Amino acid sequence: MRSASPKPSGTDRPAGADRPAGADRPEGASRSAGARGTLRWRLTLLTTGVVALALVIGAVVLVRLLEGGRVEALDDAAATRARTVASLVASDQVPDALGVVAPGEVVQVLDGAGRVVATSANASLTLPVVSLADVADEAAESARTGEPVLTTADSAYTGSARVAVLAVPGAEGSAAGDGSTATDGSTAGDVVVAAVPLGDVAATIRALALALVAVVPVLVLGLGVVVWVVLGRALRPVEDLRVAADAVAAEGGRGSLPVPASGELAALATTLNAMLDRLDGAVQAAQRSARREHEAATRQRAFVADAAHELRSPITGLRAALDVAREHPEAYPAADLVPDLDDGVRRMEVLVEDLLLLARVGSRPLARERVALADVARAAVAEGAAAAAARSGEVSLDVRGEGVALADAEVLARVVRNLVANGVRHAVGRVRIEVSDGEFAVDDDGAGIAVAERERVFERFVRLDAARERDAGGSGLGLAIARELAREQGGDVVLADSALGGLRAVVTLPVG
Fold first, then answer.
1. Residue 432: which H helix or E strand, with range?
2. Is 362 left (phi over 0), alpha (psi -120 to 50) or beta?
3. H or E stretch including 72?
4. d(CA 357, CA 488)
5. How many Å apart are CA 420 and CA 435, to the nearest integer?
6. Do the Cβ atoms of 130 and 106 come closer than 8 Å?
7. What distance in Å separates the CA atoms of residue 252 and residue 507, rounded to the nearest whole number?
8. What are the DSSP calls for 158-209, one per residue?
């Protein structure tokens, strides 16, 4: 965790002045809400905008196509009507009232001066549908091509209309047959004018445009809502991944991200989970390494403290003996001094060796092999018998059973020797070793240890009452060494009541 202490500065600044804006907000929540909201909004706006533009363009194109189709149909009707009437004029078969079909359709025949020669029943002989001067150019063009010329003009009867103008050159009663136009706008022949009103087309287009103006925004809005909901569901796995990642970051431990059923997000989540597993493995390895370093440092400090504490007494005793011998040689002759010094040096030697052994626990490679526990026990009994013979009184030792374990033979032998030596030291007259696969037990008939003290005796240099004191040359490290060496090999040492009446020390070890 970073320190919150302010840095020294010559200028007083408000608290938080060095932090970026928004630092006080929950970082994961603000970042996620902003990023996800922005992405969702952008995609929604982009999709809706594109569709809205497409709908507007489509609506305009639809209106134009519909308008063009309707106008083209009116043009066909007007041109057909003009040709029909022109054929009647050319054959001098003009009826009193020219026939029309479409509502509002007006057809008239105008002479060269623009006067009405013939008209449909819905128009007057005195009022031309359009002024000849207004369509003089179209009449001249029609005279040259012989085809109706279409234009949009204001009809005297229906307002804006599509007008088909067809000149009939050489018609009977015409002044000339070339269809030429005079300077005053008159023509040399008759002109057929058929007008079809555009009012219905304009009303239809206007109604369609109004409908599209009303419908397109509704469609765009509805589409925007649909896109918003669909994007929310599509981005839900992303949000789940973010929430899980925030949880992993907040808890700081092992975690995994939810994996969708399929798709790119599933592949992404799988990859991220693999990365998290690798990171977690690296973190755990670093933590294990740090723990090992801490334990090694702790053991080293404990070793120095224990050595200083335990060596102080024998060294002080040796120095006192030497001082007495130096000051009073007649009272402390060499024949007495040498055995005393030898005993103190031997005790110091045993103590230093035990301390060095404890300091090396966990820092050396161990062999892993199948060891016959009965053979190890018999070797320890041989050493224990020699120690028992040096004591006053007789202690019998026997080994029962057979068994194997997976261990370092040399280290295991030290464990067994320590436990047998402890049993011999405190036994009244009997020590028994029982062996089976992965386990051996050392029983004695001594005073035993109270249940409440059975864990404390595994601590270094712990001594209980007079019955278990280091009164027979022990260093006070035997049980501590036995347990730490057993645990180093994957086993343990525990204490219990013995059937012989004393203490039972049980060692468990891996078998395979």
1. strand 430-436
2. left
3. helix 27-90
4. 12
5. 13
6. no
7. 38
8. TEEEEEEEEEETT-TT-S-SS--B-TTS-BSSEEEEEEEESHHHHHHHHHHH
- Contact by Cβ (8 Å): 180, 187: yes
Per-residue pLDDT, averaged over 404-427, amounts to: 88
- Whole-number Å distance between alpha carbons of 272 and 255: 11
Contact 156, 168 (CB under 8 A): no
Question: pLDDT tens, 227-279?
Answer: 888 888 877 777 777 777 777 777 766 667 777 777 677 777 778 777 877 88
User: What distance in Å separates the CA atoms of residue 5 and residue 488, rounded to the nearest whole number?
Assistant: 44
DSSP string, 99-154: ---STT-EEEEE-TTS-EEEEETTS-TTS-SS-GGGGHHHHHHHHHHSS-EEEEEE
Are 175 and 199 spatial neighbours (Cβ–Cβ below 8 Å)? no
State whether residue 293 is helix, strand or coil.
helix
Average pLDDT over residues 47-52: 88
DSSP secondary structure of 296-343 = HHHHHHHHHHHHHHHHHHHHHHHHHHHHHHHH-TTTS-HHHHHHHHHH
Task: Please check the confidence at residue 435 and state whether its pLDDT lies above 90.
Answer: yes
* 218's tokens: 């509704």
**What local confidence, expressed as pLDDT, does residue 468 receive?**
43
The answer to whether 477 touches 354, Cβ cutoff 8 Å, is yes
Name which residue leads in pLDDT, 431 or 277.
431
Distance, in Å, from the CA atom of 492 to the CA atom of 293, rounded to the nearest integer, reads 22
Cα torsion 399, 402, 406, 409: sign = positive
Tokens of 478: 């035997």
- CB of 404 closer than 8 Å to CB of 511: yes
- The rounded distance, in Å, linking the Cα atoms of 239 and 233 is 10
Q: Please identify which residue in the block is written with the tokens 């000149």.
A: 167
> Would you state the structure tokens that stand for residue 352, as one six-digit string?
């230093």
For residue 459, CA distances in Å to 388, 453, 456, 471 come to: 25, 11, 6, 18
Assess contact for 168 and 162: CB atoms under 8 A.
no
Task: Report DSSP state, residue 11.
Answer: S
Percent of the chain whose predicted confidence (pLDDT) is above 90: 9
Instruction: Grade residue 170 by pLDDT with cuts at 50, 70 and 90.
Output: low
Q: Which pLDDT does position 393 carry in this prediction? A: 59
Element (H, E) at 496: strand 492-497
CA torsion 72→78→84→90, rounded to 10°?
A: -120
CB–CB of 174/90 below 8 Å? no
- State whether residue 507 is helix, strand or coil: strand
Question: What are the pLDDT digits (tens) for 82-104?
Answer: 888 888 888 888 888 888 887 88
Confidence at 176, pLDDT banded by 50, 70, 90: very low
Distance between CA atoms of residues 150 and 192, nearest Å: 12
